[in-house]
Amino acid sequence: MSYKIFETTKHNYDPVNEYIDDQARLKRSASTWRNAKSIALILIALGLFILLSAWAYYFFKKPHRLVSLSEINQKVLNNEERLIKNEKRLPVEEEVSLNSYNNQLQDKINEKDQEILELKNQLENNPKNETLKKEKEKIENDKKELEKKLSQQNNVQTDVIHFKSIKSVINNQPIVIYTRLQYDDPRNQEPTTVTCYISFDNPEYPTIELGFIESDFNITPYLRNQTGITYDQVQNVKNNYCQY
Fold first, then answer.
1. Could you tell me if residue 99 is inside a domain?
2. Contacting residues for 191 by C-beta, under 8 A, at least 6 apart
3. Could you list the residue range(s) of the whole structural domain that residue 115 is in?
4. What are the pLDDT digits (tens) for 166-207?
5. Is residue 6 assigned to a domain?
């Protein structure tokens, strides 16, 4: 009995399939990269457009002022002219003598203020003392005469500021209470503005600006720590010693 032998041939296509798959993946990767690059370029272009638009809008809305060279030169000349007009000349000998006399008058007025304050305090303890009352009235009249003389001496000046001072103590610290009296016209009997401030005997301590009679004031933390003074103590000094 004879047997038939059948021969078959088997083909392996795996390498071909892998090559096809690899090519497909490469094509997909290239397509994705191109898309991503296109999107990135679009976003960059959009960002630049927005930035340039904002910049253009800013310059469009910004107020422009064109100043000519002649205008600048004119302003410089005006400023120089103003400085020349405001420049103070050196005082002559007569003016120095006059200022010295005025300072002497002001010192006497300050002394009268101190005496009046002391008599006022004595009268608070003894209000029926007629001798103290007459003495206080006399000193007040003397003070008015001195102020009248000082006003007459200053009748050729403008924007004059007088200072009245009273010595006192706050929290064991020697102080001087200065009252500023500013006159637009020194011939006037009443000042235009009156302000006040406290100066300490110790130059390391800053002054306390009390301002007008209705103004509030501040005490620096450094001054509080160094002297221990309180707001109420300073307010009491303002109420009793500032000569508004």
1. yes
2. 162, 181, 182, 183
3. 94-153
4. 999 999 999 999 999 888 776 677 888 999 999 999 988 999
5. no
